[in-house]
Design goal:
Number of helices: 13
CATH superfamily of the largest domain: Glycosidases
CATH topology of the largest domain: TIM Barrel
Radius of gyration: 26 Å
Distance between the termini: 62 Å
Structural class: alpha/beta
Length: 511
C-alpha cells in the first residue's frame, strides 16, 4: 500500500517555525511611510512575526548624530524613536542592524543604493564605540531594559562584499569589537552578533577572532539565496550539492559551524535561477511568480529544526534600494506588492502558519525532488501542508501524486483544501497575461486582487477503519493546505416569538 501515512502520535520534535522570528523592510526611513506600516500590519494580522530587520537606521536622513560647534558628537533620536515605536506598536521587536556609517563619523564617502548609505569604516573606532553606547543607552531609557534585552544587535551588513563595506576584514572585526563592547558596557545581557555575511562567509573566522581577543559574541548571522550556487559554481560545475539541495545543505553546514550559538539567517527569499547566465538580483521573476510560494513553503518547513531565524527579505515591495518601484510586479523581494497584493510567497507562509498543534510523524514513499508534506494535530483537527518546488535547472517537472492516510476518530470528515497556484494565490501570471501593464485599470486591479486569493474547496469523506485516505496531487510550483476535521454540529432553530411574528407579517405583506 503506497503513499504517505500520518502517525497518530506526535513526532519527537515540534515545529519551531524559525521563519516567523523576523521579517524585513528595506531601510529604517521606509517605516515612516503609511503604506509600509500598513503592509506590515497585514503581515502581523494574517501571518504573525516577532521582529523586523532593516538597513540604515543610522543613515543621515534619520539624523541620529551630528557634530556640535566644538566638534563634539550631538545626538537627536526623534526619527529613530518614531521608527522603533512604529514597530513596537505592530507587535514587532527591532532586529537592530548597526549601520550605515553616519557622515560625521565616516572615514570616506563611498555609498551604495538609491538612498546612498555610507559603507566606509569610522575615522575613529573609539568614536564609533562612543556612538553605539549612546544609542544603546537611549534605547534602554526610552523602552526599558527588559524590552531592549529581548532585541538582537547585529553589527553591519554583508561586510565580506566590497559594495557593502569598503574596509578590510580586520577593520570589520575592529568595528564589531568596538560595537560589542559598547553594548555590553550598557548591559551585559544585550545580545550582539554578526557578521551578517553573504553566502555564510566569515562565521568560523569571527568565532575564532572573538575567542582570541575576548570579544563578546552571542549569536552568528548570515545570508543566503538559492542562486548563490550558480554564482559560486558556473552552471553547477564542481558543486558538491545534489540538485535542488544547495540552500538546505549550506545552511545546515553553517549551523554545524557555529555550534551551540544561535544562528540567525537575516536575509533569505526565493531568488533562484536555472543557469549562471540567468543570475539576476534586480529583475528576477522568481520572487514574484508561483515558484516563490513553493520555495518559501519548502524551506520554511525543511529547515524548521536547523536555524534559529529565517528572516524573509522583505515584507513589502515598497523597497527603494534601486529607486522607487515603477510597476505592480517589479521583481522586488516583497511578500506584498507595492499595492498590497499578496504574492504566492505570502500565501504560502500564511498556510504554513496554519500548522497548529503537535507535529505528526509522516512515513511512506519517498517524495520526488523538492516535494514534501508536513502534518500537525490540534485536538481532533489535522493540518497538512504539501509543496512541490522544482529545480529550475532540471527543466519541466511532473505533478506529485500520492495518497495520504490520516488516522481519525470519527468516520465522517470535512476536508477543506486551500491551494496556491498560478492564477489562484499567485497573481503575477495574470499580470503577464494582461500584457504587463504599468498602470492597471481599476478593473484590471480587481482581477489581480481576485487572482491573488488561493483556491478554496471543501469535500466530505468517509473514513474506513479509523483511517482517512486522501488522493493528493500537487503540481510544480504549488502549495496545498488541508484541514481535516469532523463536521461541526448543525445549527438548531431556537424559539423566537418576535421573529416568528415578523416573518408572518412579511408573508402577509407579500401576498
Amino acid at each position: 500500500m503506497g503513499g504517505l501515512r500520518v502517525a497518530r502520535e506526535p513526532a519527537a520534535a515540534p515545529l519551531r517555525m524559525p521563519w516567523r522570528e523576523a521579517v524585513a523592510v528595506g531601510r529604517g526611513f521606509e517605516l515612516l511611510r503609511a503604506d509600509v506600516r500598513e503592509h506590515l500590519a497585514r503581515c502581523q494580522r494574517e501571518i504573525g512575526f516577532k521582529a523586523c530587520r532593516f538597513h540604515a537606521i543610522f543613515h543621515d536622513e534619520v539624523g541620529v548624530v551630528t557634530r556640535g560647534s566644538e566638534g563634539e558628537l550631538v545626538y537627536r533620536w526623534h526619527h529613530l524613536d518614531q521608527i522603533y515605536d512604529a514597530l513596537l506598536e505592530l507587535g514587532l521587536k527591532p532586529f537592530v542592524e548597526l549601520n550605515p556609517m553616519p557622515a560625521c563619523l565616516a572615514s570616506g564617502d563611498q555609498t551604495m543604493f538609491h538612498y546612498r548609505m555610507n559603507v566606509t569604516p569610522p575615522a575613529d573606532f573609539g568614536e564609533w564605540g562612543e556612538f553605539i553606547e549612546a544609542f544603546a543607552r537611549h534605547c534602554v531609557t526610552r523602552w526599558g531594559l527588559d524590552e531592549v534585552r529581548s532585541w538582537n544587535f547585529e553589527v553591519w551588513n554583508e561586510p565580506n562584499l566590497s559594495g557593502f563595506w569598503s574596509g578590510t576584514k580586520e577593520e570589520y572585526f575592529q568595528l564589531y569589537a568596538s560595537a560589542a563592547r559598547a553594548l555590553k558596557r550598557v548591559d551585559a545581557q544585550l545580545q550582539v552578533g554578526g557578521p551578517a555575511s553573504s553566502k555564510c562567509a566569515w562565521l568560523d573566522d569571527l568565532i575564532a577572532w572573538c575567542e582570541s581577543e575576548d570579544v563578546p559574541l552571542d549569536f552568528l548571522s548570515t545570508h543566503l539565496y538559492s542562486q548563490d550556487e550558480f554564482v559560486e559554481f558556473d552552471d553547477r560545475a564542481g558543486s558538491p550539492h545534489e540538485p535542488n539541495a544547495f540552500f538546505i545543505d549550506r545552511l545546515r553546514a553553517a549551523k554545524a559551524e557555529v555550534g551551540d550559538r544561535p544562528l540567525h539567517i537575516t536575509e533569505w527569499n526565493s531568488l533562484s535561477c536555472g543557469s549562471s547566465k540567468t543570475v539576476d538580483w534586480t529583475g528576477n521573476p522568481s520572487v514574484d511568480n508561483a515558484y516563490a510560494g513553493a520555495f518559501a513553503a519548502r524551506m520554511a518547513l525543511e529547515l524548521d529544526q536547523d536555524v534559529d531565524t529565517l528572516c524573509w527579505w522583505v515584507a513589502s515591495d515598497r523597497f527603494e534600494e534601486g529607486g522607487v518601484p515603477q510597476a505592480p510586479f517589479g521583481s522586488i523581494y516583497g511578500l506584498l506588492t507595492v499595492d498590497g497584493i499578496p504574492k504566492s510567497s505570502y500565501n504560502a507562509l500564511q498556510l504554513c502558519a496554519r500548522l497548529r498543534g503537535a507535529r505528526q510523524s509522516v512515513s511512506g514513499d519517498a517524495a520526488p525532488n523538492g516535494c514534501g508534506l508536513v502534518a500537525t494535530r490540534e485536538c481532533e483537527t489535522v493540518h497538512v501542508v504539501a509543496y512541490h518546488q522544482p529545480f529550475m535547472a532540471a527543466g519541466p517537472a511532473q505533478p506529485w501524486q500520492t495518497t495520504v492516510r490520516i488516522p481519525v476518530d470519527h468516520a465522517e470528515q470535512v476536508v477543506t483544501a486551500i491551494r496556491v497556484r498560478a492564477g489562484a494565490g499567485s497573481a503575477y501570471e495574470t499580470w503577464l497575461a494582461l500584457g504587463r501593464p504599468q498602470d492597471p485599470s481599476p478593473a484590471q486591479m480587481a482581477v489581480l486582487r481576485a487572482h491573488a486569493v488561493p483556491e478554496h474547496t471543501m469535500t466530505r469523506h468517509q473514513a474506513e477503519q479509523g483511517e482517512l485516505a486522501l488522493s493528493v496531487t500537487v503540481a510544480p510550483n504549488e502549495v496545498l493546505y488541508l484541514e481535516c476535521r469532523e463536521p461541526s454540529p448543525a445549527v438548531h432553530k431556537l424559539a423566537n416569538p418576535e421573529l416568528e411574528r415578523w416573518n408572518a407579517d412579511m408573508g402577509e405583506q407579500s401576498r
